[in-house]
Request: fold
Amino acid sequence: MKKKIILSLIYIIFFFNSIVLSEENKKNLKIGLLAPLSGSYSELGNSILYSLQLALEEINNENVFIVPRDSGFNDKDKLNAAIQDIKSQGIKIVIGPITHEEFDEAKKYSDLVFISPSNIDPEFTSNIISVGVSLESQLIALTKFIKKQKKNRTIIMYPKNQYSELVETKIKKLNLNAIKTFTYSSNPEILTGEIEILTNYSQRKKSLNLRKKMFEDKEDEQSIKELERLEQLYTLGDVNFDSVIIIDFGNNLKSVLTSLVYTDVDQDKVLFTTINQWFDESIFYENTIKNLYYPSINYKEFKKYNEKYFKKYETYPNEITILTYDTVGLIYYAWKKNGGINSINDFFFKNKIKGKIGTFSFKEKKVLQELNIYKTEKNKFIKF
Reply:
């Protein structure tokens, strides 16, 4: 009898607490944050926290709160402790984890919704939404752009590394199988030789030398002029592609661009495009490249955000924090629209959502961004 009474009391307490938490969820929006607030990656973690505080100021609603917890960086024990602490406070929505390597742990907490700035995959999992600028969004933007430029002999180039399989999967998903692909080594010494093969450099060099010999012993004016013209060239003949999509960044990207120019790929005839460029000004100093095109977020809003952040904190933010900044607005919209947040279903929006980075769509259980195309020209980022 006592057991039955105790069990009944436990059930009543649990049921009562559930009602209280549900009402609390409707009245107040508490957003958990999982970020590395200490240790080697604390600068990133605190930059994310600051971005959320900026977003709260803009929302200006005293019923919206951020509950930050230090989850470390790829530290399972610290991550689980942070999630459990957040969960114990009745919080249903969490910004984080920061990296996709931590997703397996987050999936264990099926009653929570996690929104991550990771860009590994735009598709919803059971309880995780990734809002990073995905490869899928970038490839969609680039292929549309290339088509508008009337280029139809495109090559997608990417390095041989741990992400090669992911790239190949995305190419198949987007039905880009008709586009040729080319994989290369991240070792610059090997890379140059591979690009020489891609561009048929040796044969084009040989063709030029043979053409020169035809006019070397001739003295008529026309032959002399032709020889003078040939002396200005490095190779003879065009490559068998008219556009490239280089899925790489940083020094590796610069090595690929340098190798393409070294093998005399005509930049007036071949369109150079790439991905993952967060308006990195170091690309300005790559003198070998005339124009480089890439898809990205809204540059004007990106600059405004950076200035606003600097004005408040006297330092510039990590580039990905504009994503977490936007995420607060996204969560707030879902909370207001649904009268609370209880599951991932509350983020199945029919309409597109406009944020600072640009426009999001949430169709077919995936997040895609509508990106602008920019080019680097004369030390400027120009919207194309």
